[in-house]
Amino acid sequence: MKLIIVLTLIFAVIIGGALYYMYSRKPSSTSGEIIVDAAPIAKPILDRVIGVFENKTGVKVDVSYDASGVIYTKIKEGAPIDVVVFASRDWGLKALNEGLVYPTPSTGLGYQLVVVYVRASTPHNITCLDDLARYNVKIGVANPDVAPAGYEALRIINQSPNAGLLKSKIVVAKDIAELATWFKIGVVDAAFIWNTFNSTLANLTKAVIYPWRCGYNTTVYYSPVYISKTSRNVQEARELVEFLSSDYVKNVERSLGFFATEEEARVFMRSTST
């Protein structure tokens, strides 16, 4: 009988100790890695800064690129993504209103504006958007269903009294990269492309049309960054979002031709309005 009691006590001590170890110790980091799903528009910035964040924190960052609609669907279906970077404010607000992302911390990347580049080979004097309606030209626009720049191009064109004529001249590229290539090789005479392409298109360009100078409302675009509620590494995700809002990243954005804040873009618009 004493032997049974002793064995029972020993068993209880072993089980108790095991339970204490399991529940009292601090949980370790799940993987030391965070998953980022971003719209391709943010790639130039992320390519430059993610390595710096990894070296600074020791946290590995796995970045993949998808259209905003795909990113939205992934987190809605519960995919374990830590940080999401949408192509435009609309997608960010949609995810926020659906409760799919945390409201804070958040930040914006890559503020930019859609402008119209006119090829140097175009023989006409084109200084404003509506001049394009008067000539036999091809106007390049990225697919508005997937490209924010294409959506903004149509929004601007629809404000024109010559919207019908302008639309009849549109040639639709699958994305902004294809449109830039078309412009370079002369498939189109003018193209609605981000201001950040200025350095690569300048030597082929006769004029850059600023839609706001012609009286058309123009939206400042940026890529909103949020922590997904499917994140398994919220603390590390928070560190990344805070890093992406740092002065270091803002300076990188400026070096790539982006505006670092919406106010910087607004200042540029005011300075080029006349």
Structure, briefly:
GO terms for molecular function: metal ion binding; molybdate ion binding. This protein is an alpha/beta fold. 42% of the residues lie in helices and 19% in strands.
In the CATH hierarchy, the third-tier topology of the largest domain is known as D-Maltodextrin-Binding Protein, domain 2
Under CATH at level 1, the class of the largest domain stands as Alpha Beta
Distance between the termini: 100 Å
Q: Report the helical percentage.
A: 40-55%
Number of helices: 11
Computed over alpha carbons, the radius of gyration is: 26 Å
Number of strands: 10
GO molecular function, one term: metal ion binding
Keywords: Metal-binding, Signal
Protein name: Molybdate ABC transporter substrate-binding protein
InterPro entries: ModA (IPR005950), ModA/WtpA (IPR050682)
Question: How would you portray this structure in words?
Answer:
This protein is of the alpha/beta class. The protein folds into two domains: 33-111 and 222-271, D-Maltodextrin-Binding Protein, domain 2, CATH 3.40.190; 114-214, Periplasmic binding protein-like II (D-Maltodextrin-Binding Protein, domain 2). Helix content is 42%, strand content 19%. The protein is built from eleven helices and ten strands. The protein has helices at residues 2-24, 43-57, 68-76, 89-97, 148-157, 163-168, 176-185, 198-201, 234-244, 247-255, 262-271, and strands at residues 33-38, 60-65, 83-85, 107-112, 114-119, 139-142, 170-173, 190-194, 205-209, 221-227. The strands form two sheets. It has a five-stranded mixed beta sheet with strand order 2-1-3-10-4. The protein has a five-stranded mixed beta sheet with strand order 7-6-8-5-9, with helices on both faces. The longest helix has 23 residues, at 2-24. The N and C termini lie far apart (100 Å). Mean pLDDT is 89; it is low at 1-31. InterPro entries: ModA, ModA/WtpA. Keywords: Metal-binding, Signal.
